[in-house]
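#onboarding

Welcome to the new folks! Below is a worked example of what a typical request in this channel looks like: someone posts a single protein sequence, and someone else replies with the predicted structure as tokens. Don't worry about understanding the tokens yet, we'll cover that in week two.

Example request:
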Amino acid sequence: MISPNSSSTPPIKPKKVVIGMSGGVDSSVAAWMLKEQGYEVIGLFMKNWEDDDNDEYCSARQDWLDVVSVADLIGIDVEAVNFAAEYRERVFADFLREYAAGRTPNPDVLCNAEIKFKAFLDHAMSLGADAIATGHYARVRHQAGKVQLLKAVDASKDQSYFLHRLTQTQLSNVLFPLGEIPKIEVRQIAEKIGLPNARKKDSTGICFIGERPFREFLNRYLPTTPGPIKTPEGKTVGEHMGLAFFTLGQRKGIGLGGSQDGNGDAWYVARKDIPNNTLYVAQGHEHPWLLANKLEAIDASWVAGSAPVSGKYSAKTRYRQVDSACEIVAGGEGPQSFELSFPQAQWAVTPGQSAVLYDGDICLGGGIISA
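Example response:
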């Protein structure tokens, strides 16, 4: 049976593991793997959102039923815990502040650091757990008294980007059973052992938004503040409903029809002028306003506890992006900031998103893009 983590495992094998179970196939197979490896496993279902519990887009009730069915099949105890108050205070409030300021945050990053590996970890330890586990595709490696966060073997499913804010303390108590196996094998295991959710569709999007139209959801919480849409040349070509509803690189939903100058290229959101409430759009995927060879990041968080030395690494400026060669200037404008430069221009570098640094398969940490 495959080890839950990479080649180097903790010196003392945990006995009691509490695993976060979402009702999806990944965490279900992860729970089964741990049980097969001899751990005492307890499943924990986290409810993090309550605003529209009966809404067509909220699947919490069905997810809980799936968790119970899986737990019964594999023979483990399971309980539910409500972290909705913590989520609203620690994650959703920040999400709204960032959008109101015209940035595009990634709440899944903050959710992992504040809920899944803090509130959940604390609760699991109160149950007497030796470690926690999740169905994330990532690995940890214990080496020379430190814990490293590594990419998953299945590069197409790697989720280290979302986990880059985890600390040494958090990672030292975590197992990622799926880190060494490809997603296709996870589905095969689920089918083979007869999991009731073996063919359940993977969840997409932000956890509390689900599959709902994003603009419709955001409009519940943020006011519309119309303003002009302009081209880089200063020509007004339309009106936007509020800068919060747009993100750099966005092509659909801008509200502009055909070409304004006859060249037929698509329109992209290129800049946001916050003080003047102006949205700038440009035509063509490779417009200069959409390309950047450097970025600044703030609120840095480093897995090792300190910033890496200045030098050449690789980075992602958004999830699903291929790693890009870069050079870091640690420190930037302060101890919690840094700068990255790229030999190859990066497309639609977006304030509010995370810039995550890698040294090969090792996720070093990162920060929030500010410029």
